[in-house]
Amino acid sequence: MKKIEVISIDRIGLVGEISKILSRVNGNIITHTANVSSDGITAISHFSADVDLNKALDNEALSRRLKKIKNVRQVKITDI
């Protein structure tokens, strides 16, 4: 089980793109939240999820995939 956090500039379809990547690595989202706040100019999305992965996957490899999403600023993955 992994906790995944993605911080990005908010836009339509962002959560869908994150979910698609997790699906491609056989990840099952157990719980998730997606909150949006503003830094005064830009809407910033904070996506957090507990994900059960059916196969072993290196955190760095998954992080690289998530960072390829447009406007992603930060990805944090921890084992739980």
Summarize, please:
The chain is built from 2 helices and 4 strands; from the N terminus they run βαββαβ. By secondary structure, the protein is of the alpha+beta class.
Q: How is this structure best described in words?
A:
It contains 2 helices and 4 strands. Strands 2-3-1-4 form a 4-stranded antiparallel beta sheet, covered by helices on one side. The protein is elongated and about 40 Å long. Strand 2 and strand 3 form a beta hairpin. It has helices spanning 14-24, 59-67, and strands at residues 2-9, 27-38, 43-53, 72-79.
Return the structural class.
Answer: alpha+beta
How large is the count of helical segments? 2
CATH topology group: Alpha-Beta Plaits
Question: What proportion of the residues form beta strands (DSSP E)?
Answer: over 45%
Based on the structure given, which CATH architecture is correct?
Answer: 2-Layer Sandwich
Large-scale geometry: elongated
Radius of gyration: 12 Å
* Averaged pLDDT: 93
